[in-house]
Structures are given as structure tokens and as C-alpha cells.
TrEMBL record, chain A:
Pfam families named among the record's database cross-references: NTP_transferase (PF00483), W2 (PF02020)
Gene3D superfamilies tied to this protein: 1.25.40.180, Spore Coat Polysaccharide Biosynthesis Protein SpsA, Chain A
Stored InterPro entries: ARM-type_fold, eIF-2B_epsilon_N, eIF2B_epsilon, NTP_transferase_dom, Nucleotide-diphossugar_trans, W2_domain, W2_eIF2B_epsilon
GO cellular component: cytosol; eukaryotic translation initiation factor 2B complex
The protein, known as: Translation initiation factor eIF2B subunit epsilon
Organism: Vitis rotundifolia (Muscadine grape)
Acidic residues bias spans: 421-430
Domain of life where this protein originates: Eukaryota
Annotated W2 domain residues: 426-575
Molecular-function GO terms, alphabetical: guanyl-nucleotide exchange factor activity; translation initiation factor activity; translation initiation factor binding
Region (Disordered) residue spans: 403-432
Coiled coil: none
Automatic annotation (TrEMBL), chain B:
Higher taxonomy: Eukaryota, Viridiplantae, Streptophyta, Embryophyta, Tracheophyta
Keyword Signal recorded: no
GO molecular function, one term: guanyl-nucleotide exchange factor activity
Pfam families: LbH_EIF2B, NTP_transferase
Organism: Vitis rotundifolia
PANTHER family membership: TRANSLATION INITIATION FACTOR EIF-2B SUBUNIT GAMMA
Domain Nucleotidyl transferase: 7-147
Name the UniProt record assigns to this protein: Translation initiation factor eIF2B subunit gamma
Biological role: Acts as a component of the translation initiation factor 2B (eIF2B) complex, which catalyzes the exchange of GDP for GTP on the eukaryotic initiation factor 2 (eIF2) complex gamma subunit. Its guanine nucleotide exchange factor activity is repressed when bound to eIF2 complex phosphorylated on the alpha subunit, thereby limiting the amount of methionyl-initiator methionine tRNA available to the ribosome and consequently global translation is repressed.
Keyword field: Cytoplasm, Initiation factor, Protein biosynthesis
Gene Ontology annotations for the cellular component aspect, listed alphabetically: cytosol; eukaryotic translation initiation factor 2B complex
Length: 575, 484
């Protein structure tokens, strides 16, 4: 691949002399499962959109836009796609070369682009598009803008096409059923500065780095734009994908990655179309919406009554009814073969997606009732809308009460992220300590039942301590807890028996405890005393008892000597 | 229309930012700009808009007395001014809170006393009324700062870039204020409320606009906010951002106010939507996003309470600056006798300068363009004055150069001094061959060049309070403030 880095005048001229044919990469796989189960048997790009497979719209547009070479990347159901293309006219057109690239192990657009990079087939700027896009925009201007920017700045690697579309204030979805999109664009250079789809609804604010304003005196924030998923890319895009082998999704990884990364300084620009149409069948709602748009001729010339390759010519009749020319007999209202029909009797409103059942017949509709051809996408009913509305209102009230965004003082709450992560940390550590205690207890019980030597138990507990990153005090606590639990679980009838049990267990495992209780126990004793758990007399008695005991036994006593001394003095004073 | 506006001029007290220029004797409002107190510019701007009933709020009793004394002397038959003293350091919101009981009109125009501009307050008031806004703020482009021709200006611009002004979010029509960051908030990341962005669709964030501290408030709104949020100290940093943030989720009980007809569409109208719609149509041809947002599902009566925060953006060719720093003081003095000379109210001579008839100039002394020489000042021989303001009754010796500087009243400058980019306060005395660059010299200071040679002070930019520095000495109780 010819890198343009440090291109001199000569090489630029040379490049103009060697004309690179305009290329396009068409991804005939959405790498998503939104259309399941329909796409289990059939690739999405072959699904009919007003009786024509989607890919035909995309190819027809590419051809009309002056693209000379298209690489169709097929992955899911690749055989079907290739077979379809082979049987279609697309291979036989002059000045329009279609090449298929087949892959079976690509799981994402990133994989696809990496594979194409390895093939070394892209030599210049190319259009990146998916096979489910319908558009009638002219590429000339966008391409020219892209090329001009490239001449000035080698880092301008991509121009993405956007279109105005305000998401519904209620569902926060655009007309095409895609989630709302927040973008920041430099109003003068049209550089994309921020891109957030899949917005987190819980976060009431969106934050932009302050450095953005240091470079640009003004920024336009947009919530009313729609991403058309038509990108004009420089060849570097493919190598960026290869360099960053973890980039999968075109938007989520690639665009975000480029926007965040300021080392390479790659820039993405936008091109807004106004009167032209460009949309992508991304989900069922957009499937429905785009079908309607085609029938209502927004996508002219890609409409049923104009022959673009691969479709049947249909005649437009009154009331927006398309009738295939093959049908001569009077068409039955409900049994029209190859009829696209749109009852325009209902007032058409853009704001409410499904105020009534605006529907149409796909292809053959077998003697169904009116109800049955309203099935393409269940419209959002008025009830549902009010429900959602209610919910958002409730949300609003909640946020007012909990002052999620707005504190009473009018301050914006600091990003909840930091708090959350802290909470997470706390949660983690608490979980950790619980697990740790359980592990220690299990180790201890195993030692009891299998008569493991103390040294080994200490070793095990130490390793646990290291792996859970605990202090020896935690070990002591956990061990003491297990020891006491063991004593408690030994069946007993009276208090004295319990005491005896405790005593025996402790004496049995004293060495274990000792190894962790070296510095602590005086304090522990003191604590127990303070809390009135241990009576003063009991401690003194214990001390005198141990007086006669062997040396190893006296460790505890020695360690708590001071405290016992103090107790003795105190009791003397009391006397 | 202007009758309904009550005007509050916040004249401040002795601002700490302007030390050493201000003092007990000279509060901020009386700092001279082209030999006139800065407050006179605001008062004359208001007078020009036929706003003659004013409340001037001054921090501190002493300062209030001085300001009041000056106003009653200068404007006795022209304006009806009430001077109110408030405790020091209450902030702008606190000052308004203190005088809230004086406010009676429907709308309040709040002007900062250090504003020097030629934008008519009437335009702001009209924008406020047109939208029935809760608050309307005037924005202007950020003034050019720093000395005009010196090479250091580029370096300065870099450091000052977004730091000193506001970050402002506007709707596409540039009529509504959607986001404002002021003060310490500027240094943080920009956090925009999604709800507002959703409602309006597109927001333009600008760093090249400045809040001019000229606001029109709906009185009910202002009083309610001041009452309820008693922690709010500053209009700019607390009240305005609060109103902007809560504009789509208004907590204001606007319909409780006695002036219901004022708040027409802002409050919940229980009637049928025909009335609503006609009201909307009457107000504006296309409903603003506030109204659309407030609307119920089917365009019925509003379900949400909103209020509007509007802006009036002064056009580029208007002059607008605030005297809130020493740099601004120098800049404004330079501008008022220079590019914005129409503000000064003086008539310039053919040489494009103002020399009072009573001023005396020695032989071979030149006074260049954009200069001002006050009443009764005397200049010796072979002096040169460029782009500077010299106050009243100054005595300037021979061979003195004054460039890009402000010399206040009763200053004595001895022979051979050179003053560049400096401010010399009243009653200072400079002895022979003192060289000053980018300095401020406090009141009644005696400055001596010693050891025969000239005293070189070429320190830069910030004030330090070192009593002795670079060979300067502390003379008794006079302290010399230098930039270091």
C-alpha cells in the first residue's frame, strides 16, 4: 500500500496520473443478531425490502454514485449471498466490478477489515458501507471534501455521513429505531470530537473534555443527528484496524478509539446530507420505516416503479399503490401479487411512529384479513406511549426527589462513576473477606477432621492470606472464629460443658492461634475485659492457674502480663 | 416599556483583585477611566436608555458614603439614585438579597458597576420581554487583552485562552442559554445535561463569549431563588447557573406571583389546548423548545414546568469590557481613549488626543495619539507621552517618557523617568530617573532612583507584596507594590 507520508509534489502528481479506481467495501453481514430468527436461514442482506433484496439497493446506489470496484465481504450464509450475486446482473456490468470475499471465521467488522487489509486489494480512498443501506445521496461532494482534507492533513482518515433526525423525546429513539446519539462536531471544520451511542440513560450529563475547547473556540453538540453508516475512508483505516487487533465494532471501538487516542492524532470528519436519503436497516423498526420511505418515494430513484437492476418494474397508481405490470386482472384488494400497497387514507404523521396500523403488503398475502397484513412491525400503540411517558415522568420526579442531577443547591452532582467504582471496591473487599473467612474455616475444619499438623495449617492459612491480600490480624480473626465455632458445634448440655469444650479446643489449637496472635492478644484481652465479656476475676484466676503451667503455655500470660499487673493493682486500689 | 424595569447597579466595594489600585479612599466604583470614575460609564449608559431610577449597591459603609457623595455631586439633577450599603463580602447575590425589599417592578435589570460598554440595556430588556424569560444575560465577545503592539501579547493570549472567560452553551437560534460554566467550573470537564440537549437537539458550546454581568431578571424569580437558596452568594456563579440548569425542570412557583399575566405560558394553564395554542401563537411564531418540551403527549396543556433563560449577544463591533483586573484597568483606559473613544464622552482634538486647556506643556514635548492630559497638569521639556492617560494636576519633569500607562491625579514624576505599561496611583512621587515597566505604584508612594544610576524594574505580570525588591526600599509606612 502506498503510504502518503511525506508525499512530495512529485509523488502527488504521480498519484494523480495513476488514477486509482474508486473502491468500496460492502459488508454483507451486520455481525449482529438483531434479525434473528429470520436470519437463521437467510442472510440479512437478502431480505426483501419492498420486494427487492436489500443488497441490491446498496449496490445500485454504489453504482450510481460512481464507484468502480466493490468488494463484497460475505460471512454469514456466504454461499447464499455469492450465489445470489452470481445469478444477478451485478457481475456483468461495465465499469462496475463486483468481487466477493468470503470468510467463515470473522465475527466482527474489525475482523473483516483486517482480512481485507491482508488481501491488499484497497489502493486508495474507499467507501465503507454495509449491505443493508439505502441511499440516494451523491458522493461527489463528500468525496471531494474528504480528498481536500487529506491533502491538507494526512490524519483525516475518515468522513462519515450524517443526517438530521431528531429522536423522539419519549422513547429516546430515532425514527429508525436506533438509540439516541450524542455527537460533538466542530461547526467550522466539521471534525467529529465526540461520539456516544448506546448512551447511558442513568447518567444525566454528558461530559466533554475541557481540552476540546482549548483547540476549538466553539463546538456543536448534537442530539438531532443520525449516523447513516456510510463512511469514506482512507486506506489507513484498514491498517489502523490491523494495528489495533482488538477493534471489533466500527463505531464502538474504532471511532471511540480514534477520538480518545491523541498520540496518532487521527481525525474523523462528518459530512451532513440534507435533502438526500441515507438510512440503514439496523433493526425491525428501521426495516419498517425504510420500507415506507421507499414506497413514499423518499429514496427516488430507488423506488419500485423505476427499474434499477434486479427489480421488477411496477406501475405507480393512485393513492401510492404500486402494481406490477405482469398483473393484468383487476387486483383484489387483499390478494395482490407483487403489490406494494400503502393505504394513504390515514393521515401520515412522522412524530408518532405507530398511531394506527399503517401497513402494506409485502408480497403474496394469502387471503388474510386486514388484520394480518398489519404484522410487519407491531406499532407502538398509544397506550404504550403513554406508559413510557408516564415512566419518564416518574423518572423525572424520582430524579427531582433524589436530586440525581440537581442538588438543592443547584450544583450538578459529580459523576456517579467515581462513587460507583468506590462502592464496587468496597463490595469487592467485603466479598473477599467473606470468602477468605470461609476458606480459612474450611482449612481449619479439614485440619480438625484429618489431623493435619499445625505447621501445615499455618502454611495453608499463610498462602490464603497472601492470595486474598489480608493481614495476619485477619487470619487471627478468622481462625479464632473457626475455633470458637468448632467448640460451639461440639454437642454439649450445660454451660460448664461448653466451657470445657472451648477450653479443650483452644488448648488443642493453641499453637495455631499463637502464631497469629503474637502481638495482638494483650489488646484482645483488654478489649474483652472492657466489654465485660471476661470478668476481672476470671482473668486473674486464669493467670494464677497458668502460673504453674509449662513454659509454652505461659506465652499468653506473659504477653498479657502488663495488663494483668494493672488489673492486680487496680483491684488492690479498690480494696 | 422601560418603565417596568428597575435597575440595580452593583458597584462593589474595594475589590481584592484590584489591590493596589483600590483603597479605602478609592473604592472600585471610583477608579478613574480616562479621568472619570468607572461607575459614570454605567450611569451614563443607563441614562442614555432613559433609565433614571437606580439603586446603586456598594459594599461597605465608607465606600458607600464616598460613592454616594460623588453621585450626588455629579448627577444631582440628572438621575434619581439611591445608594444602598451592604456588608462587605456578601457577594452579588447577597447584595441583592439585602436590598430585595426595595425591588417592586416586574423585571429587574442588574448591572455590574464596572461595566464599560456601548450596548444599549434596552436591547437586553427587549429580548427579555420578548421571550418572557426568567433571566436574560448579556454576552459579549471576549475583549482583546494585553498591550496592543508588544510581542508578549501572543504568549499572553495562549495562557489566557479559555481560562478567563465563560463556557457557554447556546441553542441554534442563539437566543437561549443552555449551559454556562463560570469560575472554577471552567477548569473541569464540560458536563452538559442530556435532558436539555435532547429537548433542543443541538447545542453550540462557545468559549469566545463573556458574561457581561448585565442581567434582566423576572423579579419574582430572582426573589424566590434568593429566598430559597440562601447559600447562593454570587449571581454569576450560583444564581445564573442554577436557573440555567433547572430551566426544563423548574422549581419556581411562577404562578404564585401576583403578576400572573406576566408569566402567561410559563405556568400550568388548566384550560383547553385551544387557549394554550393561541397563546403560544401569540407569543412567538414557532414555539421554543421549552414550550414543546413542556407540552403533554398530544400537544395538550403543559405537564412540565419550565422557565426560559435567554441571552442577548452583543454584536462584534460593540465595545464591552469589565474592569475586574489590573490588566483590564490598563486595557480599558487604553481603549477608551483609543479605539472606543466614543465612550469617553470627550471630543478629541485633531491630533486624536485630549489635552485639557489648562495643561501646560514644555518645549519639545510631544503628546501622541490616543492620549489624555488632565486639568492643570504640567509637563516639562522634551517629554513624550504615548497612548497614556495622565490625570489632573500632575507634575511631570523633563525628559520623561510615558507609554501605555495610566497616571492618576496629583502625581509627581521627576526628570528622566521612563514609565511603560504601568499604573501610577494618585499622589505618588517618582524621583529622578526611575524606570518602570508593567508596574503599579500605590497611592502616596515616594519612589527614589538611587546610586545615581536608574532603578530598573522590569518585573512581570503578577503583584507580589515584597516590601523590598530589586533595590527598592520600604520608606516608612509606604509600601511599594511591584509586579514580579
Amino acid at each position: 500500500m502506498v503510504q502518503r507520508k511525506g508525499s512530495t509534489r512529485v509523488s502527488e502528481d504521480a498519484e494523480e496520473l495513476v488514477r486509482v479506481p474508486l473502491q468500496a467495501i460492502l459488508l454483507a453481514d451486520s455481525f449482529a443478531q438483531k434479525f434473528r430468527p429470520i436470519t437463521l436461514e437467510r442472510p440479512k442482506v437478502l431480505l426483501p425490502l419492498v420486494n427487492v433484496p436489500m443488497i441490491d439497493y446498496t449496490l445500485a446506489w454504489l453504482e450510481s454514485a460512481g464507484i468502480e470496484e466493490v468488494f463484497v465481504f460475505c460471512c454469514a450464509h456466504s454461499k447464499q449471498v455469492i450465489n445470489y450475486l452470481e445469478s444477478s446482473h451485478w457481475f456483468s456490468l461495465p465499469h462496475f466490478e463486483v468481487t466477493t470475499i468470503e470468510s467463515h471465521n470473522s465475527v466482527s467488522a474489525g475482523d473483516a477489515l483486517r482480512l481485507i487489509y491482508e488481501r491488499h486489494v484497497i489502493h486508495g480512498d474507499f467507501v465503507l458501507i454495509t449491505g443493508d443501506t439505502v441511499s440516494n445521496m451523491s458522493l461527489t461532494q463528500a468525496l471531494q471534501e474528504h480528498k481536500d482534507r487529506r491533502k491538507k492533513d494526512n490524519n483525516a482518515v475518515m468522513t462519515m455521513v450524517i443526517k438530521r433526525s431528531k429522536p423522539s423525546p419519549i422513547t429516546h429513539q430515532s425514527r429508525l429505531g436506533t438509540d439516541e446519539l450524542f455527537m460533538a462536531i466542530d461547526p467550522y471544520t466539521k471534525q467529529l470530537l465526540y461520539y456516544e451511542d448506546k448512551a447511558d440513560h442513568l447518567k444525566g450529563t454528558l461530559s466533554l473534555e475541557k481540552m476540546l475547547l482549548a483547540d476549538n473556540p466553539s463546538i456543536s453538540l448534537h442530539n438531532d443527528k443520525q449516523d447513516c453508516y456510510i463512511d469514506i475512508c482512507s486506506p489507513e483505516v484498514l491498517s489502523i484496524f490491523t494495528d489495533n487487533f482488538d477493534y471489533q465494532h466500527l463505531r464502538r471501538h474504532f471511532i471511540k478509539g480514534l477520538l480518545v487516542d491523541d498520540i496518532m492524532g487521527y481525525k474523523i470528519f462528518t459530512h451532513e446530507i440534507h435533502s438526500n436519503y441515507a438510512a440503514r436497516v439496523d433493526n425491525f423498526r428501521s426495516y419498517d420505516t425504510i420500507s415506507k420511505d421507499i414506497i413514499q418515494r423518499w429514496t427516488y430513484p430507488l423506488v419500485p416503479d423505476v427499474q434499477f437492476l434486479g427489480n421488477y418494474i411496477a406501475k405507480l397508481e393512485r393513492q401510492g399503490m404500486y402494481r406490477a405490470s405482469a398483473i393484468t386482472s383487476p387486483v383484489d384488494k387483499l390478494n395482490g401479487e407483487l403489490t406494494c400497497k400503502l393505504p394513504e387514507t390515514e393521515p401520515w404523521s412522522t412524530s408518532e411512529v405507530g398511531s394506527g396500523g399503517v401497513g402494506y403488503i409485502w408480497s403474496i398475502c394469502e387471503g388474510g384479513h386486514e388484520e394480518e397484513w398489519r404484522h410487519s412491525v407491531a406499532p407502538t400503540s398509544a397506550d404504550k406511549l403513554t406508559e413510557v411517558m408516564q415512566a419518564t415522568d416518574d423518572d423525572l420526579e424520582l430524579t427531582t426527589q433524589g436530586s440525581n442531577v440537581l442538588l438543592p443547591s443547584g450544583e450538578l452532582v459529580p459523576d456517579s462513576n467515581s462513587n460507583l467504582s468506590e462502592d464496587d471496591d468496597n463490595e469487592d473487599s467485603r466479598d473477599d473477606s467473606v470468602y477468605f473467612e470461609k476458606e480459612v474455616e474450611a482449612t481449619f475444619l479439614r485440619a480438625v477432621h484429618e489431623n493435619v499438623k499445625e505447621d501445615h495449617v499455618i502454611l495453608e492459612v499463610n498462602s490464603l492470606r497472601l492470595s486474598y491480600n489480608m493481614t495476619s490480624a485477619d487470619c487471627a480473626g478468622a481462625l479464632f472464629y473457626s475455633v470458637m465455632k468448632l467448640a460451639l458445634e461440639t454437642p454439649c448440655n450445660s454451660n460448664s460443658e461448653l466451657l470445657k469444650n472451648v477450653a479443650s479446643v483452644i488448648t488443642r489449637w493453641q499453637k495455631l492461634l499463637k502464631s497469629y496472635l503474637q502481638s495482638m492478644d494483650e489488646e484482645i484481652l483488654h478489649l474483652l475485659y472492657e466489654k465485660d465479656i471476661l470478668q476481672e476475676d476470671a482473668i486473674l484466676k486464669w493467670a494464677s492457674e497458668k502460673e504453674g503451667a509449662e513454659e509454652s503455655d505461659k506465652v499468653f500470660v506473659k504477653q498479657s502480663e502488663k495488663f494483668i499487673q494493672w488489673l492486680n493493682e487496680a483491684s488492690e486500689e479498690d480494696d | 416599556m422601560m418603565m417596568d424595569f428597575q435597575v440595580v447597579v452593583l458597584a462593589g466595594g474595594t475589590s481584592k483583585k484590584l489591590v493596589p489600585l483600590v483603597s479605602k479612599e478609592v473604592p472600585k466604583a471610583l477608579l478613574p477611566v480616562a479621568n472619570r470614575p468607572v461607575l459614570s460609564y454605567v450611569l451614563e449608559l443607563l441614562e442614555h436608555s432613559n433609565l433614571k431610577d437606580l439603586i446603586v449597591v456598594v459594599e461597605g459603609q465608607d465606600a458607600a458614603l464616598r460613592v454616594g457623595g460623588w453621585i450626588s455631586g455629579a448627577y444631582v439633577d440628572r438621575l434619581h439614585v439611591e445608594v444602598a450599603a451592604v456588608p462587605e463580602d456578601v457577594g452579588t447575590a447577597g447584595a441583592l438579597r439585602a436590598i430585595a425589599h426595595h425591588l417592586t417592578a416586574n423585571d429587574i435589570l442588574v448591572v455590574s458597576g464596572d461595566l464599560i460598554c456601548d450596548v444599549s440595556p434596552g436591547a437586553v430588556a427587549a429580548a427579555h420581554r420578548r421571550h418572557g424569560a426568567a433571566v436574560t444575560a448579556m454576552l459579549c465577545s471576549v475583549p482583546v487583552s494585553g498591550p496592543l503592539e508588544s510581542g508578549s501579547s501572543s504568549g499572553k493570549d495562549k495562557t489566557k485562552k479559555p481560562g478567563c472567560c465563560n463556557i457557554i452553551g447556546l441553542d441554534p437560534t442563539k437566543q437561549f442559554l443552555l449551559y454556562i460554566a463560570t469560575g472554577p467550573e471552567i477548569d473541569r470537564d464540560i458536563r452538559v445535561q442530556k435532558s436539555i440537549l435532547r429537548a433542543v437537539g443541538q447545542m453550540e458550546i462557545r468559549a469566545d463569549l463573556m458574561d457581561a454581568h448585565l442581567y434582566a431578571f423576572k423579579r419574582a424569580v430572582l426573589q424566590e431563588v434568593l429566598d430559597q437558596k440562601d447559600a447562593f452568594q454570587s449571581l454569576q456563579q450560583d444564581v445564573l447557573p442554577y436557573l440555567v440548569r433547572s430551566q426544563l425542570r423548574s422549581e419556581l412557583s411562577l404562578n404564585g406571583a401576583p403578576h400572573t399575566e406576566e408569566n402567561g405560558h410559563d405556568k400550568v394553564v388548566p384550560g383547553d389546548n385551544q387557549v394554550m395554542l393561541s397563546q403560544l401563537l401569540a407569543k412567538t411564531s414557532t414555539p421554543s423548545f421549552h414550550e414543546l418540551y413542556a407540552m403533554g403527549p398530544n400537544g395538550s396543556a403543559p405537564v412540565r414546568r419550565t422557565h426560559k433563560c435567554c441571552v442577548y449577544i452583543a454584536s462584534q463591533d460593540k465595545y464591552c469590557a469589565r474592569l475586574n483586573s489590573i490588566q483590564a484597568f490598563s486595557d480599558i483606559n487604553r481603549d477608551v481613549i483609543g479605539e472606543a473613544s466614543h465612550l469617553s464622552g470627550y471630543s478629541f482634538s485633531a491630533q486624536n488626543n485630549i489635552i485639557h486647556p489648562s495643561a501646560e506643556l514644555g518645549s519639545k514635548t510631544t503628546v501622541g495619539q490616543n492620549c489624555m492630559l488632565g486639568e492643570g497638569s504640567q509637563l516639562g521639556d522634551k517629554c513624550s507621552v504615548k497612548r497614556s492617560v495622565i490625570g489632573r494636576h500632575c507634575r511631570i519633569g523633563s525628559n520623561v517618557k510615558v507609554v501605555n500607562s495610566v497616571v492618576m491625579n496629583h502625581v509627581t514624576i521627576s526628570d528622566g523617568c521612563s514609565i511603560q505599561g504601568s499604573v501610577i496611583c494618585s499622589n505618588a512621587q517618582l524621583q529622578e530617573r526611575v524606570v518602570l515597566k508593567d508596574c503599579q505604584i500605590l497611592d502616596r508612594v515616594l519612589m527614589v532612583g538611587f546610586n545615581e544610576g536608574s532603578l530598573m524594574v522590569t518585573l512581570y505580570d503578577r503583584i507580589t507584596r515584597r516590601k523590598t525588591h530589586g533595590g527598592l526600599r520600604n520608606f516608612g509606612h509606604h509600601v511599594i507594590f511591584l509586579e514580579a
